[in-house]
Specification:
This protein is of the alpha/beta class and 282 residues long. It contains 12 helices and 7 strands. The chain has a 7-stranded parallel β-sheet with strand order 1-2-3-4-5-6-7.
């Protein structure tokens, strides 16, 4: 879930509440708040905690789960945020591999174990293109033995790696962390996606996942190809600039991205609108 800002810069909680309801009503069954798409590196601790409260309040009675992005490159801070998110009612947390300091596999194991020991269900986040560190399959296998480590968001973008993870770590559900890889990953055993494009085409994303899970290969493939241009357009520039700009034009004002990111170009937004128009049959 993107983080809406008002015209002067602060988090727009009224719009965040409306956006959470909108996503929940349009195919999304779990909201990840203050992940990378939510611009977590530029949000203060206070802003993150307030967002958890807002989103939990928005969808609490709708049976939509809320996952808080609490992982950082600071283990103590990650643990503290996980505890606080749990106290606020988050259903789980998303914990990314520590970025910049690039710990060893032993360090990754200790880091994620400390977070999981906080008592809240944890989805690991494997995205070496952003963190510089891969959570190796052996490490995933060790971590899967922890009762509170319940899933992994796989944005490695390597089908062989996903296949090995599914084969060797069968108790750890795998979710695609890259929209364009969702169907290929589900074909080797992933079970869903943590989606960016669901902001714009949530029902179609949900339909593709459901078709793939049901073994309806023809329908899933059709939807994959329909969605692929939108996947590509939303990543022409650094996420979440394209999807946020598109939401400003096509949904309601959600503000700009915070520096050091800058707003998406008109050409990128036009590409997003074109791809979305095909999906909507316009």
């Amino acid at each position: 879930m993107i983080t809406p800002f008002d015209s002067s810069g602060p988090v727009d909680h009224q719009k965040a509440w409306r956006l959470a309801r909108h996503l929940s009503d349009n195919g999304t069954d779990t909201l990840v708040v203050t992940g990378t798409t939510g611009e977590s590196p530029t949000l203060s601790v206070e802003e993150k905690l307030a967002l958890y409260k807002t989103v939990i309040d928005a969808v609490g009675e709708k049976d939509t789960l809320v996952v808080a992005g609490t992982g950082t490159y600071n283990t103590a801070e990650s643990v503290e945020m996980t505890v606080k998110a749990g106290e606020l009612g988050a259903d789980g947390v998303l914990a990314v591999a520590p970025y910049y300091n690039r710990p060893s596999q032993q360090g990754l194991t200790a880091h994620f174990t400390a977070i999981a020991d906080a008592g809240v269900p944890v989805m690991l986040y494997n995205i070496p293109s952003r963190t510089g560190t891969l959570i190796e399959v052996d490490t995933l296998a060790r971590l899967s033995e922890h009762d509170n480590i319940v899933a992994v968001k796989d944005a490695v973008m390597d089908i062989d790696f996903t296949s090995e993870t599914v084969d060797r770590v069968p108790l750890l559900p795998v979710y695609s962390g890259q929209d364009s890889y969702t169907l290929p990953m589900m074909s080797v055993g992933a079970i869903g996606v943590v989606s960016v494009i669901a902001h714009l085409a949530g029902r179609s994303v949900a339909a593709m996942v459901k078709a793939a899970a049901a073994g309806d290969t023809e329908e899933a493939r059709k939807l994959h190809h329909l969605l692929l241009p939108l996947c590509e357009a939303c990543f022409l520039e650094t996420n979440p600039a394209p999807v946020k700009a598109a939401m400003n034009r096509l949904w309601e004002p959600v503000g700009d991205v915070r520096l050091p990111l800058v707003g998406a170009s008109d050409d990128t937004v036009a590409a997003v609108e074109k791809a979305l128009g095909v999906i909507q049959g316009l």
